[in-house]
Fold these 2 entries.
Entry 1:
Amino acid sequence: MGTLELDKPGKTVLMMGDEAIARGAIEAGVDFCASYPGTPATEVPESLARVSEHFGIYAEWSTNEIVAFEAATAASLAGLRALVAMKQNGVNVCADFLMTVNLAGINGGLVLVAGDDPSAISSSNEQDSRSYARYADLPLLEPADFQEAKDMTKWAFELSEKLGLPCILRSVTRLSHSRGNVKLGVLPEKTRKAKFEGVYISGAFAAAQHAALHQKLEQAREEFETSPFNFYVGPKKAKFVIVTSGTGWLYSREAVAALGLEAKVGILKIGTTWPLPEKFIVDHLKNVAEILIAEEVDPFLEQNIKILLAEQAKTLGPIEVYGSKSGHRPAYGEMNQDKVVQALASIRGLQLKARDEKYIEQAKELALTYIPPRMPTFCTGCPHRASLWAIKSALKLDGRDGFVTGDIGCYAIGAGPAGYFQIKTIHCMGGGIGLANGFGKLDRFAFNQPVIAVCGDSTFYHAAIPALINAQVHNSNVLMVVLDNGGTAMTGFQPHPGSGFDALGRSAPTVEIENICRGIGVEVRVRDPFEISQAVQELYDMLQEDGPRVMVFRRRCFRIEAKEKLQKKYYVDQTRCIGDDCGCARFCSRVFNCPGIIWDQEAQKAKIDEVVCTGCGVCATLCPGGAIKVRGAAS
Amino acid sequence: MTLEKDPLNLIIAGVGGQGNILASQIVATAGIKEGLYVTVGETYGASQRGGPVMSHVRFSAKAQCGPLIPEGEADIIVGLEPIEALRIIADYGSPATRVIVSPRPIYPIWVLSGQAKYPPVEEVVQKLGELVAEVRVVKAIEEGETGLAANVVMVGALAGSGMLPITMKNFEGSIKEIVSPKDLDLNLRAFKKGVELAGGKAAVPVPVKTRKRK
């Protein structure tokens, strides 16, 4: 039994931030969870799906975030408690529904977990989702550690129900994907039955609903004034206070300790960041002369605090505010302890104990020039390597300076050396085919470059279909290549509508990509990218045609495949490999670039790294000398 | 309980696919069993596709730490791959850092394609030694052996080194809690192998020139 199901109230366990959020939802008696996977929020729904049978929770991977949010809202309207989790970009996908569900209201507790990714560690941007709470007039909670991730989530359901509004819980990568101590709470008895009653229509009375929404937000502010998630630590009469939220709390506390400022600097930690608990903040800032705002990414807290200080100028008098506007905290990139230390030191004129510069110089020299860089690459056996090779070869044969528009998924690595630098644009889910269908209409402006839009299978269902319909009805010259590897691979192989199984691993109906294309009326072919010469030839042929066309390169991700069968073992027959005399320019290791093939320095021939090789066999098809063979097969 | 140094900062560095996350989870759970606050900051996502992966594991008897170790504050580094141990010294190492490293290279794509060179492993270890207080080389995996629980061998080596204030009982209890029952034997054997390597002949301490901070 995992920690999620553990019925030991008071026991301390190690939990990932996302798991703690899931456990908080479980302790709140969550009934329904719908989500689309996205780093760093994926593990919240994944955890709930894992224990869904145990706790009687309905869990699904939805087609995209707005569908997930709408499905979860339905459960709330029927009186159930529901959760939806998504990465920051997913909140944009939800925005249309968000800006009306706030007006129409909800019934059962509804929590939207927004997993932000400061520094864009696994994302195409580092947007700060907190602005959505202010924009949509919704309550916003920001857990600062693992315990709060659990406790705040539980509370968010109660608050949401009380206010009749969805609550937004903002996590960040360093909380969602970090692990720490969590003291477990009580598991509830679940008794809710679903029943829909009432009317939830936004629009006809939108202005009146908007006014009512503002009143609900004032009610939220009242709740926040006494929340245990807002607190002050430090000396009673501190003149200098750090105001912080989210991960900034842990970094601030460590920074104050590292500089030995515990007796001089206080920390005002805010967990409920929209609407601000104004009385609570004002009470703690009386007699304070300077504040430093420590938060992650946008100056969200900073700007709202500044407005409050202006409004309260008579009570509080002048307070100097340090933050991103003053240049003491960058309003981009993730936060850390060193950034808080530097801000404090520069404001207070402290000399830091600097690290030995010569030491850093020597270590940097080694890291940057002595050892080779390591770029993320396609796994050995990855079908995307073969697909991008086929695309590269077909575009080269075509010779008209064709290019590839990219999308979101593992294959985005194809913008770098792993995909032979073929991908030239990457934006949002579905953005590649959207751009391509615009490029495909530029022929009257003397544009004659062929355009290939690559798109993953999960991305196809999520966001590509409207753009493909657009390409069809406007007869846009675009070749779409769907890289269908059988699952949402980047985030950990969650199923999608084509996978044939659901969030719990049970068999499920499928919606085939080629049937959607045929329904739209687009010409579609389905090929195995590992049949590489055929793949190149057919792509080349399709590049010579006009109008919209779709090639589905279908080959299951080997990581999904490997779970099902033993892979073949390949080896380099060094009697056949003639090394540099071949004229192939070390094709397998240098040109095709698979990490499963290494250069045997002693023999001066290629060699398979059996630890890494997964036995996909594509290199065996491509080796001009026919030197790569299956172990145990007749030669 | 008090720690000799609080917080005590450990980094486990390797390459996506080496089992870095499982290793850090075992060490951290063992720390919680010991009654400590433990924070593990992990980098993965895009990095799991063959990029560098690093886990920051921080132990404190007083309070929950932030998920990132401040610059130059790593007390212990476990390198699942030799150049990945060296790569992080500039940001997190100091002359007081102690390193346990597996010498088995995993070649980056730029080395495979001939655009970059992978330096000799002995030399990498020696360069490491010039920067830190101690380097222990632990041959977690033999030539020809497939990548079997090498991460847990390295956890065993860390346990056997005595660098962490965590008992063997709590390490083993942690493995039993985390690893699935069907893989438990394999992982416990890997752990024991690591413990033996750290204390036995296979762990060869490298002669070290320690640089003093000016």
Entry 2:
Amino acid sequence: MDEEVEILIVEDNATDLEMTLRALKRQNVGNRILALRDGAEVLDYFFGNGHKRDNPLPRVILLDLKLPKVDGIDVLRKLKAEERTRRIPVVVLTSSTEESDRLASYDLGANSFVVKPVEFDAFSRAIADLGLYWLVVNRQP
Amino acid sequence: MKDPHGHYLYGNAAFHRAIGDPERDVLGRTDDGWLTEAMAAEVMRRDREVLSSGEDSTAIDDLRVDGEARWWMVFRFRVSAGANAVLGGVAIDVTEQRRAEEAVRRLNVELEERVHARTEELRRANEQLESFSYSVSHDLRTPLRAIDGYSRMLQEDYERILDAEGRRLLGVIRANTARMGDLISDLLEFSRFSRRSVQPVETDVTSLARAVARRLLASDGAGRAIDLSVHDVPPATVDPSMFEQAISNLLSNAIKYSRDRAPARIDFRGWREENGWVVYQVEDNGVGFDPRYGDKLFGVFQRLHHADEFEGTGVGLAIVKRVVERHGGRVWAEGEVGKGARFFLALPEKGMGADG
């Protein structure tokens, strides 16, 4: 796997994932998207053994908090603790409006915290804005 | 009676009976003969104190006779007899009282423990319930987003091949999804006000209400003729952000339910009662309500108007009530159909202190 990954989406919910991909495609951002379905897959992608250490780093990670196996918060903690991954912008993208989730995410070094709107148009807009901002407007580290 | 070295000189019949010595054998002997070493030493210490100071004393002596614990209330006094003082003592057996006291104490401790355990159980159950309702309303959002999203995709991608009725049906699905989204958000909001800890500080309610009024007039009240006055009101010891939400809900209700009036008249007042409570009142000249259903106003999801008359989920006033109750206060309302409504918040002036 040599090609560049623009966006890494960590999302266990298939419908949320499909809607996210659709919104990004509409905005024409993120042609190279990698989707992983749980926290363990993310840790394996970045910190797995052998050749996986060379997996390309994404330009931004959209991270859901409620994930099977390894929780989003734990994934975030690990990503921000490791030299190799700590500068990758992480956008926490979650259904949680819980203050404790928000504070914990920022404490661990999340670069943004976005609550997924229930309403589809608002959701699509939020995703499109995120893609545009992190891939086009924002300067990489 | 004892001599300064602790030898018994005299004891009445009751004394001999009590220590199980009908033969009056104890005379001339010390307490060492029938008390444990530690008890005897303690008795000796108390005896000597009275003998050396000459001051009477009353003490409860814990004496064991034949292995049975007994308590005696002992009154000690010094009898001067020339060079050699003699110790006199009168003892009353208080074992039964002592046992009764002990039992009451034990019962109290047990009772306290039980209350504590029950409170803890209740707290935990409540916490579980809160977190349950939280996670339920949370988990409901994901499928809801999917329903809304996929019906929207259907609308976008297949608009051309749907006829008017097909488009209408899709519209109905989406309207109801939006409604359910609002209900869930409001339920979450309500549960947040129930769970958050109250942090009361002295708050300038007048400025707080004026800021809320300005904000609401610019949003909810935009483009309408509204005569909203916030009078000077007493301060209160409240959690500012929670109380702001309560006032905001009341004022935005007043704006909503007076939208047929031009101008709508809304007044925010407050006063101090003689009993030390502070009362705040929001009055409007809106549609009012049927006082027969007044007690339903503050219930969660309770509404007195049809959804097509006035939008809303029926959580706003439930939040007001929850906020005020968590400050130790109460809420009530007065009104009549077509004749406006008055909502009251009463708070104990000194506040409640943090309730965690």
